[in-house]
């Protein structure tokens, strides 16, 4: 297993957490989510996003509505559901714990 | 110039170049097949199409009208290879080159088809050369007989490879963005080539021409099969003739029938002459079979021109060589038959009014006291004990110039020169017994095998005086009595069959 692979695994693990976080602030359609993720250098190819979005939606953590666009295809705006918010809270706690744990371990 | 296609992608219309469309289509196909089992496949594909539409719209913003291939490539590069959509796929950065081997499937390959693309499809499936598969198929048709129904069944049950993804599946290539691009490029090249060849034809109605070319294809295939069949029959016949060399000729040699090879040896002066003659025949057979097969296979399959040319050249040279050899042997045989030599001898001179002919058949009695009337040695030719036997006696009648019977026997043969012809005539042996007016003729005459067959003849000429009569086995044969009539039939020729039957004409 090479470094790239490990990095990818780590990124993938927190990708769902990040998506939920983005949508917690405001509703967004995939391109906006992608932009945010790319800006944070979390995503290399876009393809990875779609299965995650669909899964989160199927877990009813997300819902969406359609909106027509002036330029281009109609947009699928995703928003976080109540279950999603609870889920995100739990993830937040876990993330904080993990962050602390990693800091303690790597500080020495 | 490129063909464009108008498409709708999630409600957004695009004008897209054909190769770009193919690529896009292949991508979606592959994606669909990867997501086949997973939950929410429809949603994901919809999302991806939305994103593609969005990205393409963005690319069209600067006033472009038509989506080109490189733009689709860029968009697909952004999305990443279809494999990363798989649930358990592990992303590792730049993964568009990851190869996921795919399950090979049997498709008909219509792009490389002669008829339905079954052979080409099977060749793809088994990773064999298509020519090889077709050859096996033709063999199955001719030797096992089920090639045609097998083909029709496969034609019906095997789906045609339609999409780029199916074409890759057919060939068992790993599906990556790269290989899909490659497949699409190949398809584009083929289309270009076909367009060119179409353009060179005078072709006003595409559909009509399409049907016509299909019909002419069927005709070509039928003619091709016929040629191959003819060649194959020729091959079988030659195989039997040259290699099995069965005793087929109804002439006897050492108590059995002769083979064509044995027969030709009777004509050929030396062993090496025979070998040259034989070689000529074999080469001629090879070239003729080869021509039939080559022509047939060319009509059925696309054989490379270079290949065809080399084979044609060698077949033509083989044919020419065989012609030279056979002409040489033929001319030599002609020369060896050129000069006629004839000897004659009076065997009887008689002033009686009648002479009597008898046939001396080797009569023997077997242990049961039966008389053997046939030893099975009848036939035009018999070879035994280094001698060639010819059966039957030819008789001709002529008016005697005096009042006496004159009976002559004539021996004749041919040769390269007089001496040789006469020598051969001298070697003809026919044992005749003459006692008073009784002439006992042998049922056959013979000459040495070493003399070869050079038109050796032995015959009897009977010069009949006025009112002279000739009897054969106590029956008057000259002048012949016609039954129920007072008239006599005067014939000029007679023939005594080895069986003892007499014919006159």
Notes on the protein architecture:
The complex is a heterodimer of chains A (108) and B (505). With 108 residues, chain A is mainly α. Chain A is built from four helices and two strands. Chain A has a two-stranded antiparallel ribbon with strand order 1-2. In chain A, helix 1 (3-25) packs across helix 4 (82-107). Chain A is globular and about 55 Å long. In chain A, 24% of the residues are buried. The longest helix of chain B has 39 residues, at 206-244. The model of chain B is unreliable at 90-99 (pLDDT under 50). Chain B has 505 residues and is an alpha+beta fold. In chain B, strands 6-13-17-12-22-23 form a six-stranded mixed beta sheet, covered by helices on one side. Chain B has a five-stranded mixed beta sheet with strand order 5-4-10-11-16. Chain B has 13 helices and 23 strands. Chain B has helices at 18-35, 41-60, 69-79, 118-126, 130-144, 147-157, 164-171, 177-200, 206-244, 260-267, 271-300, 305-336, 418-426, and strands at residues 4-9, 12-17, 66-67, 247-253, 256-259, 339-350, 354-360, 364-365, 371-372, 381-384, 387-391, 393-399, 405-415, 433-435, 438-442, 444-448, 457-464, 469-472, 475-478, 480-481, 488-489, 493-496, 502-504. The termini of chain B are far apart. Chain B is rod-shaped and about 130 Å long. Chain A binds chain B through residues 2, 4-5, 7-9, 11-12, 30-31, 44-48, 50-51, 53-55, 57-58, 71-76, and chain B through 9-12, 38-40, 43-44, 47-48, 50-51, 53-54, 57-58, 61, 78-82, 84-85, 87, 90-96.
Index terms:
heterodimer, A: 108 residues, mainly alpha, two-stranded antiparallel sheet, 4 helices, 2 strands, 11% strand, B: 505 residues, alpha+beta, six-stranded mixed beta sheet, five-stranded mixed beta sheet, 13 helices, 23 strands, 46% helix, rod-shaped
Structural class label of chain B: alpha+beta
Give a short account of the largest sheet of chain A: 2 strands, antiparallel
H and E string of chain A: HHHEEH
Rg of chain B, alpha carbons: 42 Å
Number of helices of chain A: 4
Give the strand content of chain B: 15-25%
Quaternary class: heterodimer
- Share of residues in strands of chain A: 5-15%
Query: How many E-type strands of chain A?
Result: 2
The proportion of residues forming helix of chain A, as a percent range, comes to 55-70%
Mean pLDDT of chain A: 86
